[in-house]
């Protein structure tokens, strides 16, 4: 699987275009439709939303109307294994930053897309609407059980490794 990170919008949100077997899947189309489209090499088969904050869905409506694709989120994915054509991943409910937040984990590639749940060296804010400190703590405990050599692609900033977050992230203590 090829992963393209596109930084979009005023909050510098990470939008990801995943490519596999001549198909594309978008995660969190936050803004700048044209910039996202420039990174679509293969037909778009769906869009995954980690959570519904405006900086993660700003380009969603326009992309859905143009490409006539399904939007996948906490409401229509099962907690566990999901398939969107050639893409197989686990949906993990990781509330705390927002009640509808999910992490998308690709076991074979050892990569996860954490939205605003987990960042390099920190976690998402819990003081916004839908945030909850206790839920964040439960989500952290849940994610600690995944392979330590998993690469984490967050909703903002640089990627990190799960082992580094377990070791160095103060919220994981």
Explained architecture:
- 20% of the residues lie in helices and 34% in strands.
- It is of the alpha+beta class.
- The protein has a single domain, classed as Metallo-beta-lactamase, Chain A.
- The strands form 3 sheets. It has a 6-stranded mixed beta sheet with strand order 6-7-8-9-12-13. It has a 5-stranded mixed beta sheet with strand order 1-2-3-4-5, with helices on one face. Strands 10-11 form a two-stranded antiparallel ribbon.
Labels describing this entry:
single chain; 173 residues; alpha+beta; Metallo-beta-lactamase, Chain A; six-stranded mixed sheet; five-stranded mixed sheet; 13 strands
Task: Furnish the topology, listing elements before pairings.
Blueprint lengths: L1 E7 L4 E8 L2 E5 L5 H5 L6 E5 L5 H4 L2 H8 L3 E2 L7 E5 L2 E7 L8 E5 L4 E5 L2 E2 L2 E2 L9 H11 L7 E4 L5 E2 H7 L5
Parallel strand pairs: 3-4, 4-5, 9-12
Antiparallel strand pairs: 1-2, 2-3, 6-7, 7-8, 8-9, 10-11, 12-13
Question: What is the radius of gyration?
Answer: 15 Å
Q: How much of the residues is beta strand, in percent?
A: 25-35%
**Order of helix and strand elements from N to C terminus:** EEEHEHHEEEEEEEHEEH
Q: How are the strands ordered across the major sheet?
A: 6-7-8-9-12-13
Give the second-level CATH assignment, the architecture.
Answer: 4-Layer Sandwich
At the first level of CATH, the class is Alpha Beta
Overall 3D shape: globular
What is the CATH homology-level superfamily? Answer: Ribonuclease Z/Hydroxyacylglutathione hydrolase-like
Count of individual domains: 1
Major beta-sheet overview: 6 strands, mixed
What is the count of helical runs?
5
Can you count the beta strands? Answer: 13
**What does the average pLDDT come to?**
98
Question: How far is it from the N-terminal to the C-terminal residue, by CA?
Answer: 32 Å
Low-confidence stretches: none
The level of helicity is 10-25%
The helix-and-strand class reads alpha+beta
CATH topology: Metallo-beta-lactamase, Chain A
């Amino acid at each position: 699987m090829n992963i393209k990170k596109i930084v979009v919008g005023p909050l510098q949100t990470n939008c990801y275009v995943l490519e596999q077997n001549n198909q594309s899947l978008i995660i969190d189309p936050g803004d700048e439709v044209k910039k996202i489209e420039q990174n679509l090499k293969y037909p778009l088969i769906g869009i995954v939303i980690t959570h519904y904050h405006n900086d993660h869905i700003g380009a969603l409506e326009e992309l859905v109307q143009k490409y006539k694709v399904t939007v996948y989120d906490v409401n229509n994915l099962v907690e566990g294994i999901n398939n969107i054509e050639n893409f197989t991943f686990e949906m993990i409910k990781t509330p705390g930053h927002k009640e509808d937040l999910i992490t998308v984990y690709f076991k074979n590639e050892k990569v996860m897309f954490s939205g605003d749940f987990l960042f390099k060296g920190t976690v998402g804010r819990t003081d916004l609407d839908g945030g909850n400190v206790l839920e964040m703590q439960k989500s952290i405990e849940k994610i600690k059980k995944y392979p330590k050599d998993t690469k984490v692609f967050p909703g903002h900033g640089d990627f990190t490794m799960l082992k580094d977050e377990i070791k160095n992230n103060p919220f994981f203590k």
